[in-house]
Design a protein that fits this description.
Blueprint (H helix, E strand, L loop, with lengths): L5 E3 L6 E3 L11 H12 L22 H4 L4
Antiparallel strand pairs: 1-2
C-alpha cells in the first residue's frame, strides 16, 4: 500500500491527503463547496483554450504518472 500524498487544501491551506474520500483534495466538504462557488461565480476561469502544444511535454509520460500531483 502506498503512502498518502500530503498536500495543502487549496482553500484553507490545511494539510490533508490528496486522495481522501469523498472530499480530496480538499480537507472538508465546506472547502469543496467554497471552491465550487468560486468556479460558479467565475472567480476561477480557464484563460484560453488548450492547444496541442500545451501537451507536448507529456506525450511520453506513463499514464500512471499523469494522475500524481507532484
Amino acid at each position: 500500500m502506498s503512502k498518502p500524498t500530503r498536500i495543502r487544501c487549496p482553500i484553507c491551506q490545511r494539510e490533508n491527503d490528496f486522495f481522501a474520500e469523498p472530499v480530496g483534495p480538499f480537507c472538508s466538504n465546506r472547502c469543496k463547496m467554497v471552491d465550487l462557488g468560486k468556479w460558479l461565480g467565475e472567480e476561477y476561469r480557464v484563460s484560453e483554450p488548450l492547444r496541442p502544444d500545451h501537451f507536448a511535454g507529456y506525450e511520453d509520460m506513463p499514464d500512471a504518472d499523469l494522475d500524481r500531483p507532484e
